[in-house]
Amino acid sequence: MADALKNVIAQSLECPVCLNTFNDPKILSCSHTYCKACLDNLLKCHGSHEMLRCPVCRAETQVPNQEVSRLPASLALKSLIEDMKDHYQFCTNCKSEDKPQAVVYCQDCGKYLCSTCHNKHSQWPDFIGHEVLAMSEIVSGKVSVRIYRKCKKHPKEDEEWFCSDCRRFACFKCVVMEHTNEGHRVIETAVYESSHIKSIEDLKSKADKKRSCFQKYVDFIDEQKERVNNVQKQCTDDINKAYKESVQQLRERKDILIGEVKGRTEGVEKELDKMKKSVVEHITHLTTIADVVTNRTKIPSDMDALAAHDTLCQDLQEALKQEDPNYKQPRQSSRKGKCVSFKRNVGMDVLALGRIVNAVAKNIALPTKNNMIALVSTPDGRMAVAGCNPGGVEIFSADGHHKKKIFKDIKIRGVGFLSDDRYVLLDRSNNITLYTQGYTKFNVMFETLSDNEGGIASLTVDSNDQIYVSYWNARKIQVFSPAGGKAIREISCNGYLPWQITSYNTYIIVASGNTNTIRLIDKQGVVKYKLTKSGDDLYPAVSQGNTIMIAALKRDVDLVSIDEYTNELKHIQNLVTDYKIEKPEIKWYHLQQYRSGEIAFCTRDRLYIFH
Question: What is the architecture of the domain spanning 367-610?
């Protein structure tokens, strides 16, 4: 009876989760008790939740701040466990009342044995294979004792059966009286334990596989993280390297810019120094002679003194004949230096610091507001600004002076010149008319497309006196002979609108409307080269050096930049950078160059001449 009671007490000291003696037992709100470590593990399974579900009754207990240590401890259970540890276990095999202290426990016999019984037990052939545990290992907790379950109703009977329906162990008597008649599924405890162990092993195997699967995933994440870290390190190294190189480039660029400023200004300073030196020498000469002549205290009397005095007076008279200083020359020289300025980069290429620019523009209001429609250089080196409303052609010199107005009554869309200096005019009805230098009209007819058929048109003349007319709506270019008549050929503009056209060697430069694109096409319409600048409107012209100039206009801020390009549309140099123009009412622009080198950029209202 005492052994049975001990077994019951021992079972009550086992944690339902780990099946070992309670270690730091904690009580849940449902009154069930578990080891603190087991509750910690259960709480981890629920992630960041503060609610813990009891494995026995499934009731939930709130765990403050996820700290299981803050749950109430089972003090009585802890005290009982300590008492059980300190209580000696006596031999359960000896028959005498004064039983000796046990030294081992046989798992198979379910008995505690003293040293005498242990010696006999180890000598019995049937017991040689039994699992025997030393009491020192049991007390230290290194091993667990297999408890033989005794029936609570029949304490002398072992619970050798297990009811699968009731999920409880039972003795043979209980099985016969309570379970068999109910049709319950009853199996031997050993069979259940074997099946349970196999089920646990299967679960463990699946858990190991699942854990391995997720561990591979973790390893994969670590691998990706390592790759990202490698990229971060590589990028950091590249950035540091680029930073050092950029700093070096900035230093070199700074030195180049400073040198460029010196190169542009030192020549002017030398010119001014040369002027100054000449004037200072004249001042010294004038002062010296004047002092010699005017500081005499005696009047010369002999012939030599008179001769010397006459000579000095004559030299002074010559010096006095020197014209007064002309401020125009040093002002002109200094203007070359004063127009030099540094234009800092704003935008993509900030590391280039900027450029040294010396573009100075004349801003000229056109005689008629919102009139300009075409711009072309005249054979005599001036600039012709053609108007569509009320019409006419305004002629401006390279210094910006308005010279005259011609063809006052013609509303013009395009103007050009043949090699014999005849005018070629394209009017608002898309009719072409030829005029002599004296403005006499030739009786030559050209079969162009009307405004309704072709839409707005543009005109250019090539070096072979062939006349090109482009049409917005028809999206093609017609080519005419100066003799008039029908077009000798047509060029199709597939996929783009010919906004402006300009003759260039054996090519035609086409500015496409609202596409920010310049195309260089041959006389058959094949696109040879193309240039696109996002965010800019592009306007081309042919330079006096037979290169291509392109004005790029930022419409939203009204800044114009002009660059020079090769015949393959490769950039050569910047000519004008971000020059602020006055905002026109109508967005229409043209670019040309004077024979003398000045660049003309024209809006509908104003003519800008860059020197």
Answer: 6 Propeller (2.120)
